[in-house]
Amino acid sequence: GWPASPAVAQATYPTRSITIVVPFAAGGPTDTVTRLVAEAMGRDLGQPVVVENVGGAGGTLGAARVAQARPDGYSLLLHHIGMGTTPSLYRRLSYDAVNGFDPIGLVTEVPMTIIARKDIPANNLQELVELIRRQRQELNYANAGIGAASHLCGLLFQTAVGAPMTTVPYRGTGPAMTDLIGGTVDLMCDQTTNTTEHIRAGAVRAFAVTTAQRLPSLPDIPTTAEAGLPGMEVTVWHALYAPKGTPEAVVNRLSRSLQFALRDEKLAQRFADLGTAPVAQDRATPAAARAFWQADIAKWRPVIEAAGQYAD
Ligand code: MLT
Predict the structure, then answer these.
(1) Is the interface score ipTM higher than 0.95?
(2) Strands, E, within the chain: which ranges?
């Protein structure tokens, strides 16, 4: 491992810019959330907080980068529900996906939307499901790789529909959205932080939101239960992490800074426009994030084993 930072360095932390790795492409949902958080944290910390996109392999390349970084508080990871699913989806990883990070705090829980290219021949979710059953693997489902939220939602959707689709993997749903708008792929299930504005603009069609209640930001879109797929509920939790072994004082400083960011009114307003909200202050803590992360690993393991779709 790395030598521990001297206490004197911790007292003045941070003395230079901090990098937050987003394990997906720029312009997508994780990137959007992270840039808002990074900007506000930078104001609190008095140093720039820079976002670096390290996409690929369903978020595992970016996570590996941070797991292997020096645990000094200058390399962080903002990742989502993939932290809960990856340990079950991947049999071989270059890093410890269960224990290789020190959580800093939860950030947000983002609803998802089942969307399609705008000219898909279906008027509602039931018609979409019938189309998928009829056309089978001729419909292309875009996702951000095994371990992505869009992959997990696709698994749940295919299980509910009872028919497989052909999946097309991207480095993030930002680039996937470009192809969905262009009509070169047919379907996606993606977070409202990426889809809301394109749904409102009519660039894509939305069939359902994956929450128990309708969203104030998309009031005309039915819930999955209303649209005929009861039980298909999923929200995408995000948390901020440091590499394992980061000094506790640094982790606590970062947690306070995350709480500052999540209190920011402009951030909260932007989150609301995008269908989500910051977590409560007492969840933006190392203990809350660790408990949630570990519970989520246990929650998804049987679901993934039942679906039987693994990465190599
Ligand atoms: C992204 O930022 O591209 C997404 O979070 C991808 C996903 O998990 O579906």
Answers:
(1) yes
(2) 18-22, 49-53, 75-79, 101-117, 140-143, 166-169, 187-191, 204-209, 235-243
